[in-house]
Amino acid sequence: MVVAYYGRVSAVSDSKWRSASSLVFGRPINARRNVAMLGVSTYKTSVSPRSATSTPAAIRAALDHYSTWSWSSRVDLGEYVAVVDHGDVDDPDGDGGHERVATALAVIEQPLTMILGGDNAATWHALSALMKDRTDEFGLITLDAHLDMREGRSNGSPVRQLLEEGLDGRHVVQVGLGDYTNSPAYARDASSAGLRIIDRDAFNREDAAIIARRALDVARQGGRKVYVDIDLDVGDRSVVPGCPAAAPGGLRADEIRRFVRALATSKDVVAIDFTEVDVERDSPDARTVRLAALLVLETLAGVQRRSL
Questions:
Q1: Are the beta carbons of 65 and 293 closer than 8 angstroms?
Q2: What pTM, to 2 d.p., does this model score?
Q3: Which single residue of 3, 73, 148, 152 has CA 20 to 30 Å from 48?
Q4: What pLDDT, on the 0 to 100 scale, is given for residue 308?
């Protein structure tokens, strides 16, 4: 079951100020670059207890707070891109949930799919479904404070699960790893699997766009398609209070935004998810959800820059 959310009415009535929610449609739009959006609101297997409140719905609603105009690029996204909203997968954590995610992804025809989590279990559901038995065709980039190499099945285990399914660790790049957020045992497991690690301190030495390009070169080597996982708990806790596992000293919002936009400019990136936001834990000003909505727009800005 997929629940549709397109056809929202913008909260902005000014005809000269086009709301970003106007980019969302229930069908492809001719003469625009169409990007798919799918909600995968996982939460039941989270290591940190979290609410069932739908983050995808909150992100869609938060688009109303933004316009379609990118000041830095001098581009109106409404003239170039459109979001084809494929709704939300019903109960992805439940029995048959993985199959429902696979079914929803199988009908998407757009060259890039934005997946709105949910916790990080959504990453395993989506990339596993996309790979099927073609693990040699995919690479993975994570922007995350954590290795996600825990045993079992939870929001702390998607990278381990994907490696166990055959994803080649030499084409997995984990960016943003922070101090005191992982264990030596899981660090050894990641090293043994051949994962490339770029820690949080790299952002103090290099621009986010340069780091993104370095990660891409590893993940897409050999013509692989690239899946990107943006776990918002990579951000500083003051920036993402709605992420239960976020810690002080994480990335700034602008670093995350530049990283996402740089990755989205590459045609090799076929899917990107935004995970680990708990709406009920967010601050009264909804800063975490609003950042997630901004990352949707940065993804679209990257797509607008893609060569034809």
A1: yes
A2: 0.94
A3: 3
A4: 62
Predicted confidence at residue 156, as pLDDT, reads 75
Q: Determine the Cα angle at 280 with ends 275 and 282, to 5°.
A: 70
Residues 6+ apart with CB under 8 A from 287: 239, 240, 241, 242
The two three-digit tokens of residue 101, written as one number: 């995610």
Q: State the DSSP string of 4-73.
A: ----PPPS---TTS-BGGGGEESS--TTSEEEEEEEE---TT-SS------HHHHHHHHGGGSBSEETTT
Which are the contacts of 141, defined by CB distance < 8 A and separation ≥ 6?
172, 173, 174, 175, 215, 216, 219, 226, 227, 228, 229, 263
CATH of the structural domain 2-305, one choice from 3.40.800.10, 3.30.70.20, 3.30.460.80, 2.60.40.10: 3.40.800.10
DSSP reduced 3-state for 80: coil
Structure tokens at 2: 């997929």
Residue 229 is given by DSSP the state E
Peptide bond preceding 94 in cis form (omega within 30 of 0) = no
3-state secondary structure 235-295: ECCCCCCCCCCCCCCCECHHHHHHHHHHHHCCCCEEEEEEECCCHHHCCCCCHHHHHHHHH
Parts of the chain with a pLDDT under 50 = 1, 3-10, 12
Q: What is the pLDDT of residue 257?
A: 98
